Fold:
Amino acid sequence: MSIIDFRGAQLVLVFDGTPDNDLVRRIESIFGSRDPGGDLGYGGTREDTGWRVRAINVKALDQDVLTTAQHSLVAYITSDADGRSLALPSCKSKHGLRDTNAVSVVVRMNCMPVDATTKQKKNKEKAAGVLDGAGDWEPAVRRDFVGLWLVAQAIRLVMNDLEEKDRKLRLFISHAKLDGVPLALAIRGQIAMLGALSDFYDVEDLDQTKDIELQLRDAVNQSTIIALRSDCYDERPWCRWEVERAEEYGCPVLVVDARTRLTHPASSLAYASSPGVRIPDGNTLRILAEILRLNLRTALARRRLQDAGAQVSFIPRTPSILSLMQACRRHKEGGLTESKPLHIVYPDPPLERGAWEAAKEIVANHSPCGRVGTVSEFLVLQGAADPDKRPLTGLTVGLSIAEPENLAAFGFTKADINRFIIRFSETLLGLGARLVFGHDWRHGGIMEMVSEAAIRYRPLSFEKSGKDWSVLNLVPWPDKPALEPWRRDQIKDVIQVEEAGVPSSADDWRHFAHMASGAELPKPPSSESGDELESRWWRACALSHLRVRLNDVCDARVCLGGKVLPKSENNPGGHSGWFPGVIEEAFHAMSIGQPVFVGSLFGGASKLMAQALEKNQPPKVDIAEDLMIPRHGIAPLSPAEWWAKCEKVSQPSALADADRQRLNQTQDMEEFLLLVVKGLMALPKASKK
Structure:
């Protein structure tokens, strides 16, 4: 399967009335598609599931909603006791929809609790995809259980396309009998209440007349492990054995840190490579939320590899030393050491500083041409890359990703954009690229999160190329970096923060404006000048100058979102340039033949640019009329002049026509990221700057 065939996955919540915003927020948090401030306690990991959650009224249901993603789970949330009236076939007929691959379930939220005599009927309904959201669970946790149940249905949807058709996800509860039984029983109770999972609990599921070790091996191999790490857990031989077998078989593992001591001895068990969760508030639902997210992420990764026909060794989490060694051993036992290199693949994000070098060394000692990388990396490369280097080493990429005015219309929030920037940054840094931003730097802002990623992914040793930073951040005039000098000095070897300044020569101005013959070079006003139009004009000049400087260091540029309307008294959140900044940055790059990756994913200015490139005509944009008037003998280039300037330059074909069209049109963040990486892979790997 080509990566352009992967259109992502989505959960569509279809309400028969006004959407229940609290339910939507909880489901989003449990799915990991969004972390609404962390107040619900479920969106705690950096990795999301890859599922987009959308909430609409049933009257808004149309064909486009159902076909946006490759995997669509449609949940009809109804207060009608006979929720079947909202089932997908009747909705298709009512709204004139064509056949789709969407799978539907019905959730009845307001029906009355039922007595024990109807439990069997309810269980049959639940298996058929009809959930009585009010009958089983008390109101305080009802919405949480609905979210967990929907994640389980999403896993089932993906797994039905794999080998495990119609099989319930099984959870192996690994615990120490000395101090872990109460917590284990509490989790079993939650699993039983949810009704969409099965569990393995040794006391009830082991046949004492048969080989115990063989039964445990089979159980571990067919389960996801919940390791209840109590104070005694690491010391118990069978607990250690279960964790080691999970490593051997490559099973997903969630570590529940239930220790009460303040100090602990070192452990040789591979906990660092598995996600973890704590429940100091006693909320065991957080354990189920995290284990379901882990499995949904794993199932989707496996599905993508299977669709691509990949013959790889898949590890469902960040590889540990033991899991790498086991993968090498299985490869050797299969007799493939010489005939076929070992390719170990694991879910995103990439391995961090030091871990990648160690993993590469382990694989190379076993299979000299072997590779270890993420699912995204493998789908783009299909294994064809130098295993001794991160594949984007030497490239410098500029990221121009900003919030547009109409973001909500595309089903996203500002938090989604920030998460995407971090995801993008981690991927490119993990593949060896350097990143360049033109942001202001604020405490708690996106650049602080990017800087943390840069430190995690900085290679152990740099090639001496004259620039040893991983991230360059240019701050536009008149802003100042909101970093204390000691902090800037502390991170200078990884993150370079510079003030972009203003044009200081005639050549500087001619990069983006006409200068009248004999005009004197103007000087920027002081902060006390009081001339608002002059200050705004200089701000626009400074932004254009910053974009020129970005081109000086970048090999390629990515443009997404961005404001469309100029800043004004009635629109204080608009852009501050001559015209939309994302479009101007694309123009600057295109005018010198630099590859530009533009998409309509978040709407805004980049969508206008993507449409312009599709139609081969200048983008129709709103310009700041008062700023475009010549001033000091200087007149900025108009969008039409920029377009004509770009047309004179041969644009590099980093992507094939079909891939470029998908890049411009896709509404899936993961697909956009993969297509950009694919295009970057096609560029020369030695930096030209």
In short: The chain has a mean pLDDT of 81. The longest strand covers residues 71-78.
